[in-house]
Every structure is written in structure tokens, then in C-alpha cells.
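Most newcomers find our protein records easier to grasp once they have seen one. A record pairs a protein's sequence with a compact description of its fold. An example says more than a description, so a record of this kind follows:
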Amino acid sequence: MALAHNARSFTATNVYNWRFEDHSVALDYDRSNGWNLVPLVIFQPVSASVLASQRPHYCGNDCYWARLEIADDAVILRWYITGPNKHYGLTTRYTAK
């Protein structure tokens, strides 16, 4: 992540490892180019186009739930984070280049 003094925007990069299984999708956070994968969530289908984390991921006392939505033109990852240190939602839209 790069943040300049008094900047109004910044650039951030996260690397995820997606594992596609027969009836689920596992998502890991890649801390060091494949050598330190942190398991985050395992998605299970809840409808034809939506998968949801089957249990939360805890980071300290904060609880992370995730939802994966399959659209015609994108895959949308939504995080719902609650706890004593964080309370927000985060949406990322993945599209083909």
C-alpha cells in the first residue's frame, strides 16, 4: 500500500488464492507469494448465483462474513465486518479485462 502525505487516494494490493472444489470455493489471503496462505472463508452455494461463507473468519475480536455473487459481467465479493475494532462493509467487483 502506498499513501502520500495529505493524499486523498491511495493504491492498495491484496493477493488471494481461490480454490474451487466440487461444491464450494475456498478463499485464502496470500501474505507472501504463495508461501504464507491464511485461510479466510469457504463459500457454499445459497442460490444459483450466490455463495456465502459457511462460517466467519475471526481476526482478533473482529468477525468477517463474506458473500460471493455471480453476475453476467462480474463476480462480486462482499465482506461484512463487525467487532470492537471494525464495523463496515466492503464490496469488490471483479471483471474481465
